[in-house]
Amino acid sequence: MEHLTARAFEIAQFLERAGWDKAMRKPVTGDASARKYDRLSLADGTTAILMDSPPETGEDVRPFVAIADHLRVVGLAAPLILHQDADAGLLLIEDFGDALFADLVADDPAREIPLYQAAADVLIHLRTTPKPQLPVCDATWLVEMIAPLFEWYAQDADAADQTAFTIQFRSFAERATAGDQVLILRDYHAQNLLLLPDRTGVEQVGLLDFQDALLGPTAYDLVSILQDARRDVSAKVEESIITYMLTQTKEDAARFRTTYAILGLQRNLRILGIFARLCLRDGKAHYVDMIPRVWGYVWRNLAHPELEELSALLTALLPEPTPTFLERMKRQCPHKPIP
């Protein structure tokens, strides 16, 4: 193994300790983080997923392990942890296969509503289960998380207008976080959910990418999946699932919809900044192509009557993602991704 890099050697030792050193390895598409994933296959057909989360990049696998354990305890489908070395940032986890909700819907659009209802059922289930000890998504957190918008997307925004928006938005954030708190998985969308047809009930929905979980408003994860930055979700489908959720939970509809719109606005403003940063700092220009979709969600939320005053403020603050604006952003993208 002398020819291996230090990280490759560390992984090889990890797999040897786990009894998976003879497995074939094939990369699996990951996310925007520094984490990498490989599917391991043994000669007998058994598979597992290697999660490589280098600690020096700021990654920490411990939250993933803790939340996975909690989700399984409360009756949801999170991967079993087969072997771990938390200090090295390495996990061997259960393989949930490739039946991503996003791919299933792309192959058969008629499955969108049933799959999204199944995703909503998971969120309904979480309302009835014990909550782990986690930080809380409060008004301060919601406001702070919008910072990338002004740092990377709306870099030329007037400072006084930024301050006016932040002050005004905080009052909305306080409204959105005033209700019941539940476990929110945060990256709850169609590319992190897998269909597990051999299981029953809510355990048919395989859950991934939940290491950043918090306690937060009941609408948060529903916004995450219905206003998906990576795929178009029509207003018709969105309304159908919101109605389904409200029918099942009997929650106050007006309050829920207002909270949903506030959280939707917050999430999508943050995502505009994150996608701009991924391009301008990290050299990942393809995220720019998703900005118009996110922009559409921003204004879908601002159409809510309760958010009218925020609409006027943001009109002055945010540059519209015209083809010219987006092309200029891509031209500023570093030629090589920064490690």
Q: What do these coordinates show?
A:
The protein is an alpha+beta fold and 339 residues long. The chain folds into two domains: 6-94, Phosphorylase Kinase, domain 1; 101-331, Aminoglycoside phosphotransferase (APH), C-terminal lobe (Aminoglycoside 3'-phosphotransferase, Chain: A, domain 2). Helix content is 47%, strand content 12%. The protein is built from 13 helices and nine strands. A five-stranded antiparallel sheet has the order 1-2-3-5-4, with helices on both faces. A hairpin with a 7-residue loop joins strand 1 (24-28) and strand 2 (36-41). Helix 6 runs parallel beside helix 10 (253-280). It is globular and about 60 Å long.
Would you identify the CATH H-level superfamily of the largest domain? Aminoglycoside phosphotransferase (APH), C-terminal lobe
The averaged pLDDT comes out at 94
Strand-residue proportion: 5-15%
Q: How many domains make up the coordinates?
A: 2
For this structure, the CATH topology of the largest domain is Aminoglycoside 3'-phosphotransferase, Chain: A, domain 2
Strand tally, please?
A: 9
Helix content: 40-55%
Distance between the termini: 24 Å
Please work out how many helical segments DSSP would assign.
Answer: 13
Return the CATH architecture of the largest domain.
Alpha-Beta Complex
Low-pLDDT residue intervals, each spanning 5 or more residues:
none
With strands numbered from the N-terminus, the spatial order across the biggest sheet is: 1-2-3-5-4
Instruction: Assign an overall shape.
Output: globular
Q: Identify the CATH class of the largest domain.
A: Alpha Beta
